Amino acid sequence: MPWATTIILILAGLCGSSLGQYNEEEDLAWLQYYLRQSRVSSYNYVPYYEEESPAYAYSYPSATDTEPEPEPEPQQAAPWRCPQECDCPPNFSSAMYCDTRNLRYLPFVPSRMKYVYFQNNLITSVQEGAFDNATELEWLALHNNQIGSEKMGKRVFGKLQRLERLYMNNNNLTRLPGPLPRSLRELHLSYNHISKVPSNALEGLENLTALYLSHNFIFEMGASLKGLKSLILADLSYNNLRKVPDGLPASLEQLYLEYNYINAIPDDYFQVSPRLLYVRMSHNSLTNQGLSSNTFNSSSILELDLSYNRLQKIPRVNTNLENLYLQGNQINEFSISSFCSVVDVMNYSRLQVLRLDGNAIKRNAVPPDAPLCLRRATVIEI
Ligand SMILES: *[C@@H]1O[C@H](CO)[C@@H](O)[C@H](O)[C@H]1NC(C)=O
Ligand SMILES: *[C@@H]1O[C@H](CO)[C@@H](O)[C@H](O)[C@H]1NC(C)=O
Ligand SMILES: *[C@@H]1O[C@H](CO)[C@@H](O)[C@H](O)[C@H]1NC(C)=O
Ligand SMILES: *[C@@H]1O[C@H](CO)[C@@H](O)[C@H](O)[C@H]1NC(C)=O
Ligand SMILES: *[C@@H]1O[C@H](CO)[C@@H](O)[C@H](O)[C@H]1NC(C)=O
Ligand SMILES: CC(=O)N[C@H]1CO[C@H](CO)[C@@H](O)[C@@H]1O
Asked: Where is the LRRNT domain (predicted)?
């Protein structure tokens, strides 16, 4: 560990004198600071959308899953058709299971199907017309195959007006498939070879709430996110972005950009997204020069991960922020003005977890008014 010798500081010992005049304040949690036994490795917040893999079960979707699952359909008297490579459970007539059986091609999809599972095969192409009869499709799982962009029909999704979830993660796509059905709610495209998302690639997807594009080679997102008026989660981590996407949607709550090469963020970038809660930008190239003084001072953000960047100062954050990760930067001062522009009994930060380990802050750099401003903090690592 590079900072094995870093001083780990329990601030409780430093604040005796400055506490004196406010010791009637009941909720001063300052003296209860403790250092966690193991380093704070996981996030305190569990975002709403945390699962990348589809809730898949061969038999029936389990009732314990948090995401809504397709309901088993009543048995139909309709003539029974099922590709012989697949399983179509008789009492769940709208689902077809063709996963994990070394298939090299896509079997036909009978028209009654709503949920079809082709994942974990060796499928390399999606031929034109493959889903033309399956106009009822709502879930299409094609992940963990070897589908290449040049082997996908130009209009394969053309007839799918009800498709809500498309899983094509872990394939060989070099560009976004499409045109995509406008009904999509979740689009899973992580672990492909996509390098560019044109500004219009996601146009019209008015119901898209979750977009997963991590682990690609994306260097350009254009303004592709801007018009997605239902988007809650955008995962663009592990790509080649040197700049943030042009414009965020107002609905966005979770933005994941870690493991890119981003070095700057335009002024007021986050102000257009008043619901933003989680911003993760660890392992980028951010410097203080690339930020404006109020870049991260957006009142909705609860969790901000800027660890492993090149920051030399603590950026200003809003007093509502609860978790701030800044470990592995080059920060050399503990500036309390980054958290509180005014420090008094009434004005203080809601910060609970602050990580500053792996920086260049000295023990005596902790200002005496830190306890008053950061009175809600339970974990501070320096
Ligand atoms: C459907 O059939 C399977 C076995 O074929 C059984 O395990 C399952 O409980 C049945 N489900 C319903 C909802 O009838
Ligand atoms: C699609 O539907 C048409 C008419 O219902 C039928 O003739 C054709 O065989 C179907 N094709 C497939 C691949 O299911
Ligand atoms: C898909 O990509 C993997 C490596 O990412 C490669 O081994 C495989 O041959 C590719 N398949 C096709 C059909 O191009
Ligand atoms: C989006 O969702 C709404 C409400 O569920 C639905 O009425 C509408 O048709 C959907 N839009 C598209 C383009 O499918
Ligand atoms: C954050 O912005 C608000 C206005 O939106 C301002 O009052 C406050 O002083 C700023 N916080 C810091 C730490 O600069
Ligand atoms: C800068 C700031 O937030 N000032 C506030 C400090 O607390 C007083 C009393 O609640 C407010 O009136 C100020 O606006």
From this structure: 81-115
User: How far is it, in rounded angstroms, from Cα 220 to Cα 240?
Assistant: 8
Q: Cα(97) to centroid of ligand 4, in Å?
A: 27
Please give the model's pTM, rounded to 2 decimal places.
0.84
**pLDDT per residue as tens digits for the range 267-323:** 899 999 999 999 999 999 999 999 998 899 988 999 999 999 999 999 999 999 999
Mean pLDDT within 190-205:
97
Beta carbon of 263 within 6 Å of any ligand 4 atom: no
Architecture of domain 83-194 in this structure? Alpha-Beta Horseshoe (3.80)
**316 CB under 6 A from ligand 5?**
yes
Residue ranges around ligand 6 (CB below 6 Å): 341-342, 346-347
Measuring CA to CA, which residue among 140, 130, 196, 135 is closest to residue 166?
140
The reply to whether domains 1-35+263-382 and 83-194 share a CATH topology is yes
Q: For residues 157 and 137, what is the distance between their CA atoms, to the nearest angstrom?
A: 10
CATH architecture of 1-35+263-382: Alpha-Beta Horseshoe (3.80)
Ligand nearest 299 Cα, by number?
Answer: 5
Residue 62 has pLDDT above 90, yes or no: no
Atom of ligand 3 nearest to the CA of 172: 1
